[in-house]
Amino acid sequence: MSNGKRLEQTGGQGVGSRVFETDAERNAIQAQLERILTDPLFRNSKRYPNLLRYVVESALDGHTSELKERTLGVAVFEREPDYDTNLDPVVRITAAEVRKRLAQYYQDPKHGAEPRIELPVGAYAPEFQPPIERAAPPLPPETVEIPWARRVRARHIAMVAAALALTVVAFQLQPWMSRPALDRLWGPVLDSANPVLLCVGQRPFVGFSVSEPQSAPWPSDSPEALRVTLFQLYYLGSQNVALPDVTTLGRLTGFLQAKGKTYQIRGESSTTFEDLRGGPVVLIGAFNNDWTMRLMGPQRFSFERDHDVFWLKDRQKPSDKGHTVNYTMPYLKLTEDFALISRVLDPTTERMVVLAGGLTGYGTMAAGEFLSNPAYMETIAKQAPRDWARMNAQIVIATKVIQGKSGPPRVVTAHFW
Question: Which of 122, 95, 117 is closest to 105 using CA atoms?
Fold first, then answer.
């Protein structure tokens, strides 16, 4: 690709005019695209590589005028031609994530000498730029360098290069090192460009009888739904949210507000799979939150139930039921509850998922306290792997319960991978 050339933009979503003059230019960008798509930032996803490949290859073919939101929704994400882009912003959300990952890719010094592929904000037509070339200045003509001067100059260059390398490393690490451990745990959520979805557990619908399935899978205008009374809906039905979950919700929304992070709240029964793919998700509750049960199932720690016995399952110790609560005991007799805190990049939704869920509501409240109080995570960070902030994490905690009131969280074990 010739020096200084780039794809010219005329503004708008995906409007471009330049056609590549040589096969060498086109081949250079095509090769760079393949390098980017094999990087871990892209290769572990399906949506991001598909969108990036489509827009880049369309631009290389001179079809940038066709790179509009609806066109991309149909061509890349198999939406219907008349789909509502406001209700289904899959293109905008994916493009924002692609921009973020491209920026992360080029922040790595090892990619500095590669051609640049950029996706400007507000557009879907990519821009291409050559790598920044920094040639070393030549020695002045007729300069004769004696051997000792050459050695001094070499040492000087080495010292400058080392200082520069240390500066780059310090610049890259400083934002992580200066942040409190709790902010680093929440980092992928706080740093996301999308709002956080807080999904709160809801108890099953029990408006008819215990012999019927504990759900209400009828259309809202069906005869069964029309027979549901207000008493059944609000006093026996799934409109209710448990007080411990509300307490946890209040703690976490307060934390997010303090960090300037926007969020939205939905009940578990009204949260769809597409909602979970729209941005980072915070799940509140365990057995009353079906999304918790689904997304935590493949992880090392998950929730299990056998009739009236509820416990935290450890895949590495499947026979261990040490973290158990029997629901038949009087609640004032309960002396200890357990909870799971999880911060995992879910492979199905391709989004970061944070969980605060207990075997009972006491554990859920303790998890909410852990996730909103910086002191607890600081203790774990001292013993965690060096790069723990960029890893998946699951933390099992316990809390003492005295006369129906829970105490502070106590860390049982932490797992990073």
Answer: 117
